[in-house]
Amino acid sequence: MRKIVHIDMDAFYASVEQRDDPSLRGRPVVVAWRGKRSVVCAASYEARRFGVRSAMPAITAERLCPEAVFVPPDFGRYKAVSRQVREIFLRHTDLVEPLSLDEAYLDVTRNKTGLPTATRVAKTIRQQIRDETQLNASAGVAPAKFLAKIASDWKKPNGLFVIQPHEVLDFLAPLSVARIPGVGKVMEAKLARYGIRSVGDLRSWDIFELERRFGRYGLRLHELAHGIDHSEVKPDRPVQSISAEDTFDIDRFRDELGPAIRQLAEKAWQATRKTERLARTVVLKLKTDQFKIYTRSITPGDSINNVDEVSALALLLLQRVELPADTRYRLVGVGLSNFYEPGQLGGQTELFGNEF
User: Fold this and answer.
1) φ, ψ for residue 255, nearest 5 deg
2) How far apart (Å, rounded) are the C-alpha atoms in residues 130 and 323?
């Protein structure tokens, strides 16, 4: 049985800003460039009380919280702190799987420091992060990766939550199916049509019936509902692709897609700032009102260095979609892929993670 720890830094970018500038402490801090095209990279917990969230348009955040202090992001500084945190992880285990600059999985089934339980490891890591970076981290401890990630969010901020192996089934039963990995809004709605709203509801279904209705993912749903997840912690798994997409309330013509593409390019670009790897390819995804999906991609000669390049290339790809002018679109997405390490034109992401 594995012992998995998921570490998630609390409001990471905003907390670094508040740590380094005492005048920001206790104030609603929004890490973002101001402007109609900008999106929120992070929000302090003081700002979150007003409904400000990451990936929200900055102009919306300003409307929700007029007293917010906007701070432009400094990714070089955040990456430096991330390296500090990763060094702490590696004192305890070599099995560290970074998810972004501010979170990671750690497999501490066997730890380097000889601590008797995963809970003790998580407590020690959180204290070391606090002592050495003056920042708070939340942690979840569980026998599976998806459970550890749920647990780390359970007592945020600055919390620790442990799911013991014998507690897994009882813990999962009342949770919304939306907590299960891969269950987004569309799948949640499909499950609700069958009366499946909680993990307990899902667990009551026969595995063969789930497979008949949902294919291979039905088998995965059955396993997760029973707390079964054989996913291993994979150290230094490189980013393959990053994307952002939006489904419109009202279908749009091609000439109306420009603003959405620019905003999605901003979101995708901001997401890449959580890794030091660089992208070479821009991908545009479109879904028509007839549910037909079209993708186009372009790989310029050099790496993509800023959000304006992402927007320009995505808009260029839009012109390469040769569909009738009266075609309506219900979804658009912008992605970045073909990543490589700086200085290495095509790894390692900069961070990042029996009794328990």
Assistant:
1) -65, -15
2) 55
Which residues contact residue 238 at a Cβ distance below 8 angstroms, ignoring those fewer than 6 apart?
277, 339, 347, 348, 349
* Catalytic hit among 103, 266, 276, 350: 103
Q: Which two tokens stand for residue 56?
A: 């929200």
Sheet holding 278-288, edge to edge: 241-253, 328-340, 278-288, 293-298
Beta-sheet pairing, 69-71 with 29-31: parallel
pLDDT tens digits for range 16-51:
999 999 999 999 999 998 776 678 889 999 999 999
Give the Cα separation of 183 and 209 in Å (integer): 18
Q: Are 277 and 340 in contact (CB under 8 A)?
A: yes
What residue type is assigned to position 240 of the chain?
A: Q
Sign of CA dihedral 182, 186, 187, 188: positive
Encoded tokens for 19: 């740590």
Domains and CATH numbers, the chain: 1-162 (3.30.70.270), 169-225 (1.10.150.20), 241-340 (3.30.1490.100)
Residue 130: is its pLDDT beyond 80? yes
Burial class of residue 288 (count of CB atoms within 10 Å of its CB; 0-12, 13-18, 19+): middle
Q: Which residue has the higher pLDDT, 75 or 131?
A: 131
Q: Report d(CA 38, CA 203) in Å as an integer.
A: 42
Q: Confirm whether 62 is a catalytic residue.
A: no
pTM of the model: 0.71
